[in-house]
Structures are given as structure tokens and as C-alpha cells.
Amino acid sequence: MNKLGLLAGCILVPFLAFLFFPWGDSRLPLYFIDDNGMLIGVFGVSIGYYQGMPVVAWWFLTADVIQLLIGVIYWFFPFISCLLCIFGSKQPPEKGKKVYIAAFFLQLIVLVLLFIDAFVLGQSSRPFLLSRTYGVLELLAALNVGFWIYVFDMALAMIAAFTYKEA
Q1: Residue 42's closest CA among 6, 85, 73?
Q2: What are φ and ψ of residue 134, in 5° steps?
Q3: What is each CA distance from 119 to 77, 122, 129, 140, 159, in whole angstroms?
Q4: Phi and psi angles of residue 125, each rounded to the nearest 5 degrees, phi first
Q5: pLDDT tens for each residue of 72-131
Q6: DSSP 3-state of 64
Q7: Cβ distance 129 to 39 under 8 Å?
């Protein structure tokens, strides 16, 4: 059993289920980026605040085709990656390596889309996701803790792929 891969799959569960725990005033911010007050994460986009807590709209609660496409990539790719990581922990070593590499690339697609939007598509006439283009330092300043946890999870999936041995 590959426990590192199982851990990588379990880390994705909070990203897929919710963006914060409302325990009084404390929150678990699993957003990728703060785009001028609009918080963007795997689960969806915040559309405003209610009593200091962000109101989150799930990707699929819209009729906008672009938002639905983004939702498929941002939610289903990590969901499939989560399932691959969890169920790949019981696979034989050769198959397990392929499963974890596939999980890594599914997660990577989400970040590549975010970076393409941040550096190229942000100033188009119809914004894809972000409201504007970013410079490198500006983007680094706008990234939230959820982005770094997601990158750490990707690293765990890749390490699980390359260190997978049968016990």
C-alpha cells in the first residue's frame, strides 16, 4: 500500500467538498487566488461576502458555458485525481506509478489554466476567469494558501509515483 499516495488523495478532499469550515470566526481558506476580492478555488468562485464570510457559488450553478468549462477542469480534474490517488494505493508498483503520474498531470492542468489566464487571457475582451493580466510578482502576491497546499499535494503525488514499491 502506498501511504504517500493515499495522503495525496486525502488532501484533495477538503478542496473538493468545501472552501472553509465555519467554526466561529476561523476559516480554512482553500482558495487559489484573490482576484480583486473575488476568491477563486477548486470548488468555485466567491460572489460576495455575508457577515464577513465569503459566499461561494459552485462552478455548475450557472448557465455560462465558459464557467461550466472552467468548472469541469477545476473541479472534475482534481476529483478524478483524488480518486486515482486513493484507489491507486492498492495497485501493483508499475500500475501504481502510472496512476500517480496521471493524477499529477490532471492536477497540473488546473494550474496551467490558471497561469495561462493570469499571464495571457486576463485582458481579453471576454475574461476567461481572472479580471486582468498579472505580472509575476503581482501573481505571487495574490496567491492564497490553498494554491500552495495544492502544489504540495501535486508534489506528494509525484513523489508517490517515483518511490512506489511493494511492501
Answers
A1: 73
A2: -120, 150
A3: 22, 7, 12, 12, 28
A4: -65, -35
A5: 888 899 999 999 989 888 888 888 889 999 999 999 999 999 898 888 876 665 567 788
A6: coil
A7: no
What's the grid cell of residue 22? Answer: 465555519
User: What pTM, to 2 d.p., does this model score?
Assistant: 0.84
Helix (H, G, I), strand (E, B) or coil at 53: strand
Q: Which three cell numbers stand for residue 4?
A: 504517500
Residues 73 and 77: their CA atoms lie apart, in Å, by: 5
In angstroms, the Cα distances linking 117 to 2, 66, 92, 121, 137 are: 35, 13, 38, 5, 15
Q: What is the pLDDT of residues 19-55, one digit of tens each?
A: 655 545 445 667 888 887 777 888 777 776 776 666 6
Q: How many CB atoms lie within 10 A of CB 123?
A: 10
Interatomic CA distance for residues 130 and 119, integer angstroms? 10
